[in-house]
Amino acid sequence: MTQVKKMWPLLTATHRYDKSISTLNRGRGQQIEAPILAYLIETANGRILYDVGCDHAKIHDPVARTRYYSPQVFDFGAPEMQEEQRIPNHLARLGLTAADVDVIFIGHLHFDHAGGLKELRRCGCGAEIHVQNDEVTAARSGADPAVFADDLLDDAGAPLPFCLQHGEYSVLPGVQAVLTPGHTLGHMSMLIELPKGPPVLLAGDAADLQENLDDEIAPGTLWQGREAQALASIRKLKVLARDTGAVVWPNHDMAFYRRLPPFPGACE
Fold it and tell me: How many domains would you assign to the chain?
């Protein structure tokens, strides 16, 4: 029986970029607005965060913004992140603090998914940080421009204490980690059994858009060009959804996000 009680989609920022970043060799020259999402999952045995969004300081401090997001060093440009979109502020609206989070599950270590780790720790979060061993190895190699090396360190410059995982596993009853590499080496999706309605399959960046799923189009950014692996992960998500009755949630699709309950509304 699932231990999941409810889940909140958290809009942590928005990002305008060329559509070809989400759909390989498709949509070049077309600008899209994408939500940057995290998910708070309340269970009978604690709270889980899937992803943590961007580092607020890198966006709002002028020196840091130039260092990380200037066109000379970063093609994507900076996301837009409002004060109320910072995860500690989302938690506060629910009567919670960062210390009330028990597990942080990082689907992959790109800047828009792992950048908020330091702020949460600064706010008193002592949660285990689950991430795939392969993901950390690739991220620390310096070969992925969407990983900001500073996001993997604490305020003192020491490596964050990741709880390294190897392959698929049950986070707890009703929450299953699903291996979906291609976009990154150790990318993870998550299958969540809600108490009511069909299960939810958080695709993460294995599928940015509904189009990735419908047309079986790989994400536009891939680890070492692994299109076949990314397509296999998309097909794996679709088979898992068919077999479990789950609904697959694309991760950066604004039209899909707008159909979800507006915060502080939850999915139950």
Answer: 1
Q: Which domain holds residue 38?
A: 4-257
The residues pairing with 128 across neighbouring beta strands, listed in sequence order, are 103
Residue 16 lies in a domain: yes
In a domain, 238, yes or no: yes
- CATH number where 22 lies: 3.60.15.10
Residues of the chain with pLDDT under 50: none
Residue 113 has which token pair? 């998914």
**Does 108 reside within a domain?**
yes
Whether this model's pTM surpasses 0.85: yes
Give CA–CA dist 44/38, Å, rounded: 20
Are 188 and 105 within 8 A, CB to CB? yes
What ranges in the chain are assigned the alpha helix state H?
56-60, 62-69, 87-93, 111-114, 117-122, 133-140, 210-214, 227-244, 254-257
pLDDT, one tens digit per residue, over 155-213 is 999 999 999 999 999 999 999 999 999 999 999 999 999 999 999 999 999 999 999 99
Residue 262, domain member (yes or no):
no
**Helix, strand, or coil (residue 115):** coil
